[in-house]
Amino acid sequence: MEQVNQKRLLWNLIMFTISFTCSNFISGVIYDSYVNYLQDVSIQVATSFWSYYGYATFISAFLVLLVNKIGFKYTLLLCPLSCILAIFMVLYIKNEFVYSLATLCVLVGLQLHYVILASFTATYTNAENKTAWYSKIYYIGYTGWLITTFLGGLVTVFRFAQRSQLPFNEARLLTGDVAGLTTELKEFYMYANKDVLLYTGIIAILSLIPVFLLKEEKKDYTQIESETEHESLKHKIQSIFKTLTNKYALSYLVYWCLISLGMGFFTPYLTVFLNRNLNIDRVTASFLVSFSYLALVLFMTQTPRAVKRFGQIITLGGAGLLSIPFMITIAMGDSFGVYMIPVVGAALFLRSGFMNLGFPIDSSLPMELVPANLRPAYSSLIFVTSGLISILAGIITEKYIFTTLEGYRYAYFYASAIYVVASLTLLITLYKKFNIPSDDTELEV
Questions:
Q1: Which of 17, 90, 298, 370 is the most buried (most CB within 10 A)?
Q2: For 257-293, b where at least 16 C-beta lie within 10 A, e where not — what string?
């Protein structure tokens, strides 16, 4: 009987891995090709994209509570279903409200999958293999994101070449100046973008299969309880206010808010800037962005070594400062002439690597700053403020920064200034007491 149950648990982990990877396939297109497509069909949604990410964060946090009531399977079905609905609305309905609703829906579907990841792996694993499965699912899924980020640009140009009956290389070069396309070629280019979204919609439909194949039993989800489920609302609020009286916890919260704000100014628009401002063709732009994502994995493997040598605060704050010259290099990419593409590509790779070198630290450091009984409240506070800052970033980019195309360049300078303040805040306030990790805190990569 136990052997049968172990097979069921393993089967569910495999099905979830497939489902999560499909979700990341969709993410690779949404966070790259779709944002680029929005530049031409709904500039309002495009320039405020990160606000929708913030809204989706809150909605996903609410929807994950459904797991206790209806189980993982039916909650997970919301992920592909919302993506399917969103993608096909964008394909067949031309309306500003529809673009807003579709963007929100697709981001909810993608975010919900990430929110469920931790509780799903905790349910279907044990203490010995939980971390291994979590890392395995995360990195396999992330590989899917990397692949479709590149393929989004490649397939767009391929379909553009087919529709316009031009050689691939000629079509590729034309996508370096989208604004300069003739009316006819621009129409072909827009249909090519729609083709990529259609293929993504098909992936979303296929991603329903592994969710339907989950072998779930009621006991899997009825025993799941929030750590603070039995706390009164008054007690929860009191716990949050206690964390705000902790100067170290408050300093880290300020740091995290600043980093989230700066990130929202440029990270969703990497391909947009490369393609529209630096006039790098879509294939090359998508390749450079996907290549920079590879740095995330490579640099994170070095986090434990960096922490051992420099300490966690120096690693986190120092890496943030080291990323800034590369952000400025990206912004000034067109000043490098014929060397623009290799220079910008290297800068993207190193910026991504340095900023994500501290990612595992960001997962563990907050838990050191407050007593154990306040950790759930502090985690909630970080989550809520992060969502609010994402919304704020989207409002700022829409109303003030992206009012002209050059705004996408200025965003790198604004973010760089914010990163300087954030990193110095962290180094000045937390170095002395928290540079060496405490014994009960474990870095997981």
A1: 90
A2: bbbbbbbbbbbbbbbbbbbbbbbbbbbbbbbbbbbbb
**57 three-state secondary structure:** helix
Q: Could you give the CA distance from residue 325 to residue 347 in angstroms, rounded to a whole number? A: 8
Q: Closest Cα partner for 264 from 74, 57, 424?
A: 57
Tell me the DSSP string of 62-127: HHGGGHHHHHHHHHHHHHHHHHHHHHHHHHH---HHHHHHHHHHHHHHHHHHHHHHHHHHHHHS-T
The token duo for 230 is 């039995």
Question: Which pLDDT tens digit goes with each residue over 207-252?
Answer: 999 999 999 888 887 765 544 444 555 666 666 677 667 889 899 9
pLDDT, tens digit (0-9, with 9 covering 90-100), for 355-410? 989 888 887 788 788 887 777 778 778 888 989 999 999 999 999 999 999 999 99
Domains of the chain: 1-224 (1.20.1250.20), 228-445 (1.20.1250.20)
| CB atoms inside a 10 Å sphere around CB 394 | 23
Tens digits of residue pLDDT in 31-77: 999 999 999 999 999 999 999 999 999 999 889 888 888 999 999 99
Whole-number Å distance between alpha carbons of 406 and 399 = 14
Taking the C-alpha atoms of residue 112 and residue 107, their distance in angstroms, rounded to an integer, is 8
Residues 6+ apart with CB under 8 A from 184: 164
What local confidence, expressed as pLDDT, does residue 219 receive?
A: 84
Helix axes 359-369, 407-434, angle to 10 degrees: 50
Dihedral, 259, 263, 264, 269 alpha carbons, nearest 10:
180
For residues 29 and 117, give the distance between their C-alpha atoms in angstroms, rounded to a whole number. 21
- Residue 334 has, within 13 A of its CA and on its CB side, a CA count of 11
- Which pLDDT does position 135 carry in this prediction? 79
Task: Tell me the mean pLDDT in the region 170-193.
Answer: 95
Q: What percent of the chain has pLDDT over 90?
A: 67
Contact at 8 Å (CB) between 156 and 193? Answer: yes
